[in-house]
Amino acid sequence: MFYTDGKLQYPVRVDSPNPLYAKMLQQAIGGIEGEIRVAMQYFFQAWGARGPKKYRDLLLQTATEELGHIEMLSTAVALNLEGSKPAVEKGVGASNPAIQAMLGGQDPRHYLSAGAAAMPVDANGVAFDMSHIYASGNLAADMYANIAAESTGRLLATRLNELTDDPGMKDMWSFLIARDTMHQQQWLAVLEELGGPQALPIPNSFPQGQEKGEFSYAFLTYGTEGTTPPEGRWSDGPSIDGRGEFHHEIAQPLGDEPVLSSPSDASFAQTEQVKGGPGASPLSGNPDRPEQMGGGTMDKLKDKLTGES
Amino acid sequence: MFYTDGKLQYPVRVDSPNPLYAKMLQQAIGGIEGEIRVAMQYFFQAWGARGPKKYRDLLLQTATEELGHIEMLSTAVALNLEGSKPAVEKGVGASNPAIQAMLGGQDPRHYLSAGAAAMPVDANGVAFDMSHIYASGNLAADMYANIAAESTGRLLATRLNELTDDPGMKDMWSFLIARDTMHQQQWLAVLEELGGPQALPIPNSFPQGQEKGEFSYAFLTYGTEGTTPPEGRWSDGPSIDGRGEFHHEIAQPLGDEPVLSSPSDASFAQTEQVKGGPGASPLSGNPDRPEQMGGGTMDKLKDKLTGES
Amino acid sequence: MFYTDGKLQYPVRVDSPNPLYAKMLQQAIGGIEGEIRVAMQYFFQAWGARGPKKYRDLLLQTATEELGHIEMLSTAVALNLEGSKPAVEKGVGASNPAIQAMLGGQDPRHYLSAGAAAMPVDANGVAFDMSHIYASGNLAADMYANIAAESTGRLLATRLNELTDDPGMKDMWSFLIARDTMHQQQWLAVLEELGGPQALPIPNSFPQGQEKGEFSYAFLTYGTEGTTPPEGRWSDGPSIDGRGEFHHEIAQPLGDEPVLSSPSDASFAQTEQVKGGPGASPLSGNPDRPEQMGGGTMDKLKDKLTGES
Amino acid sequence: MFYTDGKLQYPVRVDSPNPLYAKMLQQAIGGIEGEIRVAMQYFFQAWGARGPKKYRDLLLQTATEELGHIEMLSTAVALNLEGSKPAVEKGVGASNPAIQAMLGGQDPRHYLSAGAAAMPVDANGVAFDMSHIYASGNLAADMYANIAAESTGRLLATRLNELTDDPGMKDMWSFLIARDTMHQQQWLAVLEELGGPQALPIPNSFPQGQEKGEFSYAFLTYGTEGTTPPEGRWSDGPSIDGRGEFHHEIAQPLGDEPVLSSPSDASFAQTEQVKGGPGASPLSGNPDRPEQMGGGTMDKLKDKLTGES
Amino acid sequence: MFYTDGKLQYPVRVDSPNPLYAKMLQQAIGGIEGEIRVAMQYFFQAWGARGPKKYRDLLLQTATEELGHIEMLSTAVALNLEGSKPAVEKGVGASNPAIQAMLGGQDPRHYLSAGAAAMPVDANGVAFDMSHIYASGNLAADMYANIAAESTGRLLATRLNELTDDPGMKDMWSFLIARDTMHQQQWLAVLEELGGPQALPIPNSFPQGQEKGEFSYAFLTYGTEGTTPPEGRWSDGPSIDGRGEFHHEIAQPLGDEPVLSSPSDASFAQTEQVKGGPGASPLSGNPDRPEQMGGGTMDKLKDKLTGES
Amino acid sequence: MFYTDGKLQYPVRVDSPNPLYAKMLQQAIGGIEGEIRVAMQYFFQAWGARGPKKYRDLLLQTATEELGHIEMLSTAVALNLEGSKPAVEKGVGASNPAIQAMLGGQDPRHYLSAGAAAMPVDANGVAFDMSHIYASGNLAADMYANIAAESTGRLLATRLNELTDDPGMKDMWSFLIARDTMHQQQWLAVLEELGGPQALPIPNSFPQGQEKGEFSYAFLTYGTEGTTPPEGRWSDGPSIDGRGEFHHEIAQPLGDEPVLSSPSDASFAQTEQVKGGPGASPLSGNPDRPEQMGGGTMDKLKDKLTGES
């Protein structure tokens, strides 16, 4: 259950409203690197957390913070869309090409759909889509997803900070960038608790003996003849998890060309796709193979649909 | 530029075709944890790579491998949709409730749209959407995104392996799980080359002096009175990057309640939203504040649209 | 800024875990009628609210409540995915066709992607997409959007309640359905404060004299000859807003067939689409009309792109 | 079944073609507040209408009208993309910054994908997605969804009207805004027939005695200590439906912190998430609770997949 | 402008309602091969048609027909969701495993969201997305898109027909399949009028002399050594358009490895990505190349945003 | 399995970097007419190909080529985002309105999300969505989909070529346009092998005797009285497939108005929707009809969910 005092976590001030900057800020709200993403990701990881309770609590606390960051940025967008008095006083009016250009790039839906307020969309007006929420049930996998989110998030923040000279906006970013620093650290701290690199690969509860070990630490390359493979930490020496030796191999196909069955009647392929068609020999269909869906499972699907059992 | 020999990287064999397992396999093709995602992510990271050439080459090589994994899994789906002769021989026909149940859960589009073949969709038939491709221009951020992808990818693979007893399918997974192990290691190896934890926070090219340092290593909690904050590696001791000390603080709002301007005429808010409306005192609109979009920038947008400059 | 105590607003108990019901519950989390939708809609309306402060506060409070409802439902999903001990005790094991059928319909991603936890998706596994958040800047329009959301939300809740006999789940619904009742009432109360039906049409700040009044209260029908138009409150008598008289008219086209210009060279239409093509007479292109994009604006676009000004 | 005479419902004339305005107009075609949305929403409500026939007919008639509005707006877009002869005559050529700015903001796909014609996308080029069609089977819920659609629709229309000085475009809007007025009235008229506020809450066929009545008219707030709750029509006095008394309460958590089971083996959580992990005491897993998916239902899923019943 | 008589173009009768078949039918409504797609595609092609008027009229007429097909199929879905009396009379009740299995696969949103009616979604519940509407401004390109739509549409129809034994449904399909036959023919007839194969390539208004002719009729293959290229009509003999000779070549890279510039400061790449990093030699950055975005255009973007011109 | 040499299929050179052109180029990468679409479409068609092996091989070869085209275009985007030195030398600096305008239109995510590199999105920043991949299992249907893709693809290429004067870019397009020419020819060649127009309609394996023949070659029009139907190749003479005679008919409704059952209790329609409601006579519900979902199938769904069989 949640509570609010209606206040901002950190002051949001816009000295020179700028509708194009408002558009840019949307990336930090509804972009894949933005705050809706981290808030919702941590919430869903918390609500589904199994194992030590402290990780659930940690996720829930930080999710609650991120919700406040969406609030801050939405306020920043609204303020950037208010009448740009200071800009006008500087003499940059409608006849100034720079202002014209600026307006040409603003998000039309900030006016048309929202009447001067933030929307849960990115800098191109594409709505955030919750398929970006990663909550896998494996804590280590989730932590890497979280570090990735905070890394692209802090990167976005530094770029947005770079694009403005507004003192209010720069002050806001100095706070939000610091929080991203902490959140990167925080999820790395969990990984350290979970055993660090030695606890890899993820998931570590899968018995590694069941994987084909000769490929587990092999750096395979797919260059044509004469291509030099890239060398580095990954091509030689002990693996990061300490369970193997990195070594380089040129990849070879271990399988043949796949052979599918002929199309079944129920699939309504072109007549020419079945035996005796224009490219009759060789067929991909193998006479020793059963027919595809239709000969087998499709008939049963029909039986089921028509109630004949 | 790319080449193919038409062969599979590793043999794909299905002993007992199973249309419901075909549906499950789709998650590894078009799911967010799947092979299209990693192939395309590594390709776009490679094509936009700036900095040492070897990382570009590494990304390009591994992307090329992942393309072959989509091929393997698509073949596995097609084979699982072919007539389930072995199942029939075991005597599980149309009148068997287990088979009926199995069919009830299959993806109808495997027949309706594809005629018994794989599609670039997930296990629920939702198409893969390229917004999931992360390629940020920052190599370390990208590496964490890649480890996250390979971690959720290997986790998915172990779960799909768990759901089958088909020897062919289990053999395929023993290979693909091993490759995911290597790919996790590989991206971790790049991070080690890039300086490891000491090279954090990401991006490390942003001068950390510009962030509000007092919040960079503070573990903030948002519990109501009486809530116990979770303690761990993140709440005490040196930070992972060695640049600060973790410490716990109870979060306090540093900002006030935000005050937006009154709605402008051009926004066509309800009349009751402007001064003197039903909740007239206090207003959120501040008379000392400029009007919002419409009083200022909106008029200019109109001027521009109507060609009056 | 937000706070949490980690507790649930109302107890969530599942007596007989049921993975198919878990799938159904997803509609109330990530469906268009679900809780993410209302939480985010009220948040964005609050953060962009202009006019009397009390409406902003009201929206913010209720958004905060709805966040707790997502939490409750996510917990309900997780509990429904836990081992169905009671079901097993009732003797419905793997060999029972009813259980088999039930499993055939469960969301495979509950296992594959989430490891037995809720996801921000609907009952078909389609992720929630933030384009469903309506926050228009007009308070009355937003209130109608909110009533619509709470109406479809309560409707969904009654249907989900109908589908279960689990005492825990039914108890949860008795609470959530009551809250939907209140939220419907709440937004209707705001509309009453804003003037009720007399304050229509929305937006009421647009001077109604600028619309073509003869069509403002005309019930137009489009039936072919002999079709009887539906009669009701809308076809006769004073309008709901008291500003006009409803009356019925059979719609007539007031415009002609539209005539577009010929395609320009820059559009690379087929050669046959220009004058003298196979259907040369009559052309849709009007010689008195300027050419389309390409003859005019497209050339300028090219000039701009090539830096020639 | 449908018919057409190829004519426009109302004349569409563009005096000064303007490609940026063409982009803005797209919001009224493919935006969530646009005409595709209402046309399709009314069609699907009509085709699934159950109950008195006249509502089905009413929905079908209005849907048919809205289809003609998409036609009008698509024509308006095409005409705005034709060679801007008048603009050129006014002397605003390629070297004019205002024209340059205008072009900078146009939708590139109007040229690249459509060759100077309308597309079913919004003002940012995002395609309309049919998940926005609400047709719930409950007539009152649908009516509120329709009023919401017509309210945001008319709001959008007034904003688009505000952005243009083109006499042709303004004439078109004077008609379309009037129709939105009528459609708001029309759906309100249906609600009046259905009983008005007394017929609430929606759905009114659910026995209200089954909801926890003490929460049905309680205005709950979630402020931290010292926060003043917003007062208004919703916090005191009889409810709008006349079935209860509004009253204010400060929300209290009625549930505890949720406790999920330990992760099962089949979920492949990290080893550290199970008992004895780094945060071993206290666990979120409750030994008295059954295991989650995997211990129970997941084994059955596997049994089913592997044909062992 | 459009009209309706409320009747169905062809009778829709369901003898044995079947909710799983209702789900399958959704593919023909909201699937990419379905009727919303063709209706909307033809409408948008018509509304943007330039050139001979008769093609516009043809598209408009057929679009109007397709709208009636959505109506027929939506009716079919609603009827399939009504109480399956006949099925019950045949004795297939709740205790029958076949019925259980059938229900396990039905679309839960048919009940939860629609209360027993059609939705604009596909057989997996994924909403139709208007990005599938192709209307390019080139009549021949559009015709091929239309034939593709009618081909996958008729294929889907034959598969849906295959899955049912219901006489009413089979009768409906016998009509709809015939209409798909005609629509394939119709668009082929337009292509014949436009000049047939001799009028290729599309667009034929682009001067073919501007393309690199040596690649225009070359069948390039990308096999590794030893791979046999597929031979057929495409590898030898005159081209279909009669303007060239097909011939086979083994593809060779004509370009080098691409070299991008070093990352600029403004892009906040990792420090290690710039010169002197861990893989310092060779760099992908070329000292003779200008810096990327940030050195050049990014600074200007900032200047613009900060109003300094 | 796939291989790469890291080289470009054809040289990609940008003489005057242009960020707005970079945005336009995105349409050819992630647009529906772009290269990701064709690459993935041909791959999935190949991996699911049944019938003569040579078509599988042909599809696989061309898919492999298209992958290299994505690589070329991604390189072109990255190069267009590098510091526009030549432009600067021409004297078009930050104070130049043309440059300002250009920047106003660039994709902000090229900087914010990618740091100056290509993304898998279209010219409006909308990510490519794999639902656009058509692979139907019917070779002829797929070929038409492929010709449509190559036709809109070549059309897009000519338009992008038109928008640039950059010699490097124009050289690249002269190659890519030629390849599109070949690919159109190639798929047409397959159709010729499959029997050409005589092998229609698609699918030709469906017995045409099962369709209602009187509608198979009838050109139906839906004009109101007085509307002239468009005449052409489609309205008279032998059909293209030689199996019928084209003829014109004015469409007549052959079905009645559809009648659905009354809403069931379980659907929670408004009380007023059932018999005796405000529009009680006539009802759409037919007393001779079974109740809808809920009376029948819905009860069973509940039984199943509650384990009562």
Task: Please tag this protein with its features.
mainly alpha; 309 residues; homohexamer; extended; 4 strands; three-stranded mixed beta sheet; 9 helices
Layout of strands and helices, then pairs:
6 copies of one chain form a homohexamer.
Chain A: E1 2-4, H1 19-30, H2 35-47, H3 53-80, H4 85-89, H5 97-104, H6 108-112, H7 139-162, H8 167-193, E2 218-221, E3 237-238, E4 245-250, H9 297-305
Parallel strand pairs in A: 2-4
Antiparallel strand pairs in A: 3-4
Describe what you observe in this structure.
The structure is a homohexamer of 309-residue chains. By secondary structure, the first copy, chain A, is mainly alpha-helical. Helices cover 42% and strands 5% of the residues of chain A. The two termini of chain A are 50 Å apart. The relative contact order of chain A is 0.11. Chains A and B meet through helix 3, helix 5, helix 7, helix 8 and strand 2 of A and helix 3, helix 5, helix 7, helix 8 and strand 2 of B.
The low-pLDDT segments of chain A are: 84-102, 279-297
Overall 3D form of chain A: extended
Distance linking N and C termini of chain A: 50 Å
Residues in helix, % of chain A? 40-55%
Q: Number of helical segments of chain A?
A: 9
The greatest inter-chain interface is formed by:
A-B, 144 and 144 residues
What proportion of the residues of chain A form beta strands (DSSP E)? under 5%
Summarize the structure.
The structure is a homohexamer of 309-residue chains. Chain A is built from nine helices and four strands.
